[in-house]
Amino acid sequence: MAKYNPQEVEKKWQQRWAEGRLYEVDEETTKPKWYALTMFPYTSGDLHIGHWYAMAPSDVHARFKRMQGYSVLHPMGFDAFGLPAENAAISRGIHPFTWTMQNIDNMRRQLKSIGAIYDWSREVITCLPEYYKWTQWFFLKLYENGLAYRGKAPVNWCPHCQTVLANEQVVDGSCERCGTAVSRRDLEQWFFSITKYADELMQHNGIDWPERIKLMQRNWVGRSEGTEISFALDHAEEKEIRVFTTRPDTTFGVTFMVLAPEHPLVAKLTVPQKKAEVEEYVARSRRRTEIERLSAEKEKDGVFIGAYAINRLNGERVPIWIADYVLLSYGTGAVMAVPAHDERDFAFAKRYNLPIRVVVAPPGCGGEELEAAYIEPGIMVNSGQFNDLPSQQGIEAVSDFLERKGWGKRTISYKLRDWLISRQRYWGAPIPIVYCPSCGIVPVPEKDLPVLLPEDAEFKPTGESPLKYCERFVNTTCPRCSAPAKRETDTMDTFMCSSWYFLRYASPHYENAPFDAERIKYWLPVDLYTGGAEHAVMHLFYARFFIKALRDMGLVSFGEPFTRLFNQGVIVAERQKMSKSKGNVVTPDAYVSELGADAVRAYLMFIGPWEQGGEWNDSGISGISRWLNRVWNLVTGGYSRGGEVSPAVRGKAERDLSRLTHQTIKKVTEDMERLRFNTMLAALMEFTNYLTRVREEGMVSLSQWGEAIDTLLLLLAPTTPHLAEELWQQRGHEYSIHNQNWPRWDEELARDEEITLVVQVNGRLRDRITVPASITEAEAKKVALESRRVKAYLEGKEITNMVYVPGRLINLVVR
Ligand SMILES: [Zn+2]
Ligand SMILES: [Zn+2]
Fold first, then answer.
1. Closest ligand to Cα 435
2. Which of 62, 231, 608, 795 is disulfide-compatible with 309, CB 3.0–4.6 A?
3. Number of helices (H), then strands (E), in the chain
4. Is the pLDDT at 231 greater than 90, yes or no?
């Protein structure tokens, strides 16, 4: 008997599978389809254990669906554009393309070692012209359909160097080169109108996604219903400030207003004696990031600009302040401050000694001074004709009144902003637009795609687009009038590349369009999409927007790209997240060459529930490796009948094996469907142990033994594909185990054997009950006490003792 040598076995079968193209996708349409997608990796250069944790279990599930008779598409590719490639290339002095393709070569080699069913003829790489040609095509489609537009957005600007800076060139708010404080400056950039789909993106109808991901997406949209209210200005040109509020019932409690420092009214309304102070504050807040500005820990500060607005509801003059906790990009960029009923406004009012007026009283209270903002609903007070209304009614009554007077209107506000896709970087797909002095913005005609990224451009970051300095690229002719014109020099956000890659896999070499409509009809939507939860908003959100936009253009017939979404957990080491600085990174390559890919695959799935992750430890993987060795020895060790036993004993042994075999098929199948790999493996280990005992006893027939062993191998095939294939062959079966049907269980055979439990009360027979043979003592007692016949003899009595004879009898002693 040869010893299990995983390296030899795995090498042999990987070669054979590749040569025979075993996993080439089968598109014969009589089979039902299954599209199993794992988020494609970024081309960082090295697969770590986290990649394996994303990829091995999803491969196991895809293999399972394949054996169930589905035509399975389980592709792999690379997300290859983006900043890290550019930065790594800069620090190493090699071209991003070279760096990226070298990384892909290494990662592809590592991915092949997993032993997955990826059909490599379908690989997509987003930085290749044959791919990004179609990324550009989608840009043009969105533009044609009014979903792409040019608008202003802020960039970092160094007033000393007179240049735009990339985010990484800004250190603590100052220019990395000269130390000057960096300010923000508006630049013309490209946006996608994702907000047009805001309402639909909040709905997740008909898709099976984790609740928390759906919630995060809804929060990202941030829809709120409220009222826009106009406050009057006493000013020569400007007549009003508009604010959005969800609590118009608190309008009588406004004691000041706050504008975002960037609000266009600030310069116009600031009185001369406040000008210097206001300008300084505006400059300071321009250096802060949005996150700093919104941070809950930071104390809110601001400046009074010397002007007043009029609250039309009560005619009061309220001072106007600026504060950077108010963002221009949210709502109207102005808020009515109601310190009594808003926590942030309360803190601000306390800090600057501004009045706090209660206008909503907690039920049963008057208008006493508050120690903190009261933000709950209540009864309106100090609110003129609206006094005594409960908040909810008050919101409606005040809104009605404002609308009637023309002082406000009901509206819906969203936190979601349009998607800014322009990047002032080199390593991305060029935006296919030409600027002509006479025709203006002209899209590049489809026949001229791709707009190639020039290889020889200088790519070091300046904050400005590197392509600006590549004259060969910039200078072109207008597609419309043929006059000299200039190309757009920004590249696209790489989230654009990943918003449609799953469509390309369906027909990766199709040349006439980004995808073959027939293939899309067959494969899409993705049946199961797996990946990290960190993509909850950006990637998953953008991909959904894309598909909805394509649907409305008539290019696809579905509105949701991913029918089921599953997020795997995180693998930690020494109870910590793995990181290079902690030196606890587990590199799979070493384990693969020592214990084999099958052991790594199985261990990762055994480590804990897939959605929770778990802790990697070396003794755990050795345990798995020992189990696989036991399987090897069990299957290759042969089988012989033991000494003579009675037919009754033999019959029972055979029935027991048959039952456990069918129970195991059932358990493994159900766990597979639910992606509960750890409990599935526990069942397979239990089955292995059982078979080891059966082999020692030698009571079942040779043919039944063989069937049980084959079942074990078939159930193992998705998890340990190499080991299962090798043992399948050694048992003399036809190649390949991976083309076999998934075993089915017989509910009748899987059912626990039943016995008749005799129930006695004080030694006298009172009932006979049919129960599973495996019933425990506690269960038997429960069943006995529930019997109607038995109950009659227990009434008014106390059970003092109980005798249980397993598989036969229970006697209740009563007094
Ligand atoms: Zn500078
Ligand atoms: Zn022109």
1. 2
2. 231
3. 27, 32
4. yes
